[in-house]
Amino acid sequence: MARYITIRIIWIFIMLFAILSVNFILFKLAPAYPPADEDSKTAYFNKQVSDGYMEIALVTDESEMEEIRHQMATATTIKNSYYEDKGDLIRAYIPVPLSTQYFNWISNLIFKFDFGLSTRVEVGRPVFSIIGDRMVTTLTINIIALFFYAPIGLALGIWAALKKNKLEDNIISFLVMVMISIPSFVVMICLVLIFGYGLEWVPSIFPPKDADLALRIRGYILPVLAMTFGPIASLTRTTRAELTEVLTSEYLLLARTKGLTRKQAVIRHAFRNSLVPLVPGIIYSFAGILSGSVVIEMIYSVPGTGTIFLRALTKNAYDYNLLLASTAFYTCVGLFAVLIVDLTYGLIDPRIRMGGVR
């Protein structure tokens, strides 16, 4: 098992490195938008030089300086370059070749774990510090949602399976079909309109950090509800399907003939065997709502990682370093979720040996 986990973790880092490499190249091919303030802009380009993404060239030739001044006046300078007119010379910040930038980026990442500084969202601040401040809010909402939808989805699925083709099963199946058909952002908008603006039971936007505790707790209600509707429906449907199949199996009939009551047979045998596909599904759904909360956070003004990610994607002002760090965060969540899912198979069913040899 230890060998299997070690190999999987190595592959996770290989996949993470490959995904980030592709993102780095794509982002570098797009236009760069440095800070608008001149002092911040100079600090940004000096950081680019120190990171090995740009180099400084001093222009002293009069004709070349006049040409650069003309380009600066007409806004036709070289893309992603920056010029400082010092009067008797011009200091030029010129991007180095993309291949050189890539290897310098790898060096900074491996030896310094440096994703760079924010250029737009919070100028001059390390990007992982920005993400770290907001990660707590995002994870809190998603973990609360997990503790709500997991038991509710399992309970409804078990009830529907035990009452198969009866009124209760038909009602649950209808509600599942409705809930799974409506996107979470539509649910969120409806909840805000009804309970936020209409009834005024909860805040219409997420409360700030300096708000009182009661108001902040009420602020979590709507995003948690919006992110539980879809997972509850999906988990209910899966639980019903798996448990219905197990309830009609031969070994469960044998357990009943040996004297077990229906309740004992369901709890000891049917439900446990149904968990093999259910628990991995819960973990996958947690990773899914974590990435799906991006739009929810934007609608409700939640200061989480999703809001920052969308702000960094703003047209003509995207924050390249913050986007790359956000991509690393969400990619890590997805890759480690896959590993945890694989490990849960062996924990739920001892017959499944992860990485075992015949």
Q: Which secondary structure elements does this structure contain, and how are they paired or packed?
A:
Elements: H1 2-29, H2 38-51, E1 54-59, H3 62-74, E2 82-85, E3 90-95, H4 98-112, H5 127-162, H6 167-181, H7 184-198, H8 213-219, H9 221-247, H10 250-257, H11 262-300, H12 305-312, H13 320-348
Structural class: mainly alpha
The biggest beta sheet is recorded as:
3 strands, antiparallel
**Rg, Å, rounded:** 27 Å
**Topology, number of strands:** 3
- Measured as a percent range, the helix fraction is over 70%
Order of helices and strands: HHEHEEHHHHHHHHHH
Tell me the strand percentage band.
Answer: under 5%
What's the mean pLDDT score? Answer: 81
Q: Strands of the largest sheet, in order across it?
A: 1-3-2
Alpha-carbon distance between the termini? 14 Å
Report on the structure:
The protein has 358 residues and is mainly α. Helix content is 71%, strand content 4%. The chain has 13 helices and three strands, in the order H-H-E-H-E-E-H-H-H-H-H-H-H-H-H-H. It has a three-stranded antiparallel beta sheet with strand order 1-3-2, with helices on both faces. Strand 2 and strand 3 form a beta hairpin. Helix 11 crosses helix 12. The protein is elongated, with a radius of gyration of 27 Å. The model has no long low-confidence stretch (mean pLDDT 81).
